[in-house]
Amino acid sequence: MAQKVLIVEDEKPIAELVRFNLEKEGFQVETCYDGQEALRRVQADPPHLVILDLMLPGLDGLAVCREIRKASQVPILMLTARADEVDRVVGLELGADDYVTKPFSPRELVARVRAILRRVAAPRAEEAPLRVADLVIDPGTYEVTKAGRRIPLSVKEFDLLRFLASRPGQIMTRQVLLDEVWGYQYFGDARTVDVTVRRLREKIEDDPANPQYVLTKRGAGYYFRKD
Ligand code: CA
Q1: Which of 35, 55, 133, 221 has the fewest CB atoms within 10 Å, measured from its CB?
Q2: Is the pTM of the predicted complex or chain greater than 0.85?
């Protein structure tokens, strides 16, 4: 069955360009041109992935992302024409899974979409859940529970947690994390890692200011606690 992608972009030529390239690759594509409509569609008929432009009339992309994340962990790929770091970081901070800056090559965009969907839709079922302290990290379902309670994480937060937790005590520099968790085509900077770690801590730690799972090695990077 074709995977469904929802494009949210008011610039119709761009929306059509993206649609054309995704349909060519066998995706089922829906397009909408404003944020309110996007929220309605995500709720009524959840897609496998949302491509969300930052600049939208009315409810902008950041607000839409925030609203979607209140109820759904659907993967979100942000589009932005504003290449400054703040927007990139804010986008990820709100729970987007990745971003592409305009102008983008359709090929790169399709590659990103595939990479995100591969992580979600084709989980490595043979991988056993990772159990550390009261956390259970399940690569088969992309779920994390803490003391039996499910913790909703974005794909990136999950990937980062899994990467660190499967190597307890090993200090990872931000560059290593960018390479390993964000992947070969990612153009983000080290702050992207810091922001994702902060979001992750807010979700999994009892006291995010005094973390017990994902720890900082000052001047070096991050590591998962070693019991
Ligand atoms: Ca736009």
Answers
A1: 133
A2: no
